[in-house]
UniProtKB/TrEMBL annotation:
It comes from Pontibacter cellulosilyticus. The chain crosses the membrane at residues 60-79, 91-122, 157-176. One of its GO terms (molecular function) is hydrolase activity. Keywords: Hydrolase, Membrane, Transmembrane, Transmembrane helix. This is Metal-dependent hydrolase. It holds the Pfam family YdjM. The keyword Transport does not apply. The keyword Phosphoprotein does not apply. The lineage of its organism: Bacteria, Pseudomonadati, Bacteroidota, Cytophagia, Cytophagales.
Amino acid sequence: MASAFAHALAAVAIGKTLPAKSTSAKFWILGALCTILPDADVLMFKLGIPYEHVLGHRGFSHSLVFALLLGVLVTAIFFRSIKLTSKQGLLLILFFSLCTASHILLDALTNGGLGVAVFAPFDNTRHFLPWRPIQVSPIGIGNFFSEWGWRVIKSEVVWVGLPSLVYILFISIFKLSKNRTTFIKH
C-alpha cells in the first residue's frame, strides 16, 4: 500500500479541480479520510480473515464499487442539506468516489502485496499496473519509522508528491487565467 500521506495528497490534488467556493474544512477532511479508509481492511487480519479473501486486505474496500458506495454514503451523511441527485450532490459524490478510487490507483502502483481487487465483489482477482514504481508501505505506524519507511517517503515524493504538485500548479494557473479572461470580458 502507499502511505496515508500519499493517499491524502491525492484528495488535495483532486479537490483543487473544483471551485474554491465548493470546498470547506469538512470537504477536505472527508476527502482525505476517503483516500485512507480503504486500508481499514487491515483490521480483518485480527478477525482471522486472510489477505486474499474478498474482505481481506486490498479486497472489496479497494474496489470501484466500494469507492462509489463510500462517495454516496459520505455525501448523504455529511451533506444532508444537499439533494444527492442535484448538480452539487453529484459533484460531491464524484469527488469522494474519486478520492476513494485514487487509493486503488496508488496501491496498484506499489511494488508489493498481492494486488488490488478493483472489480470486487464481481471479481476478486487482484491486479497491479504493469509499472510499479512506488515502494510499498509497511503496515503499522511503528514500522513506518524505519529505513523501510524512509524508502517509502522518498519514493512517494517522486511518484506521488511531485506529480500532485505539478497538477495543482497547472490547475491553479488554469483557474487564474480563466478568472482573468472572465474579468477582462466584464
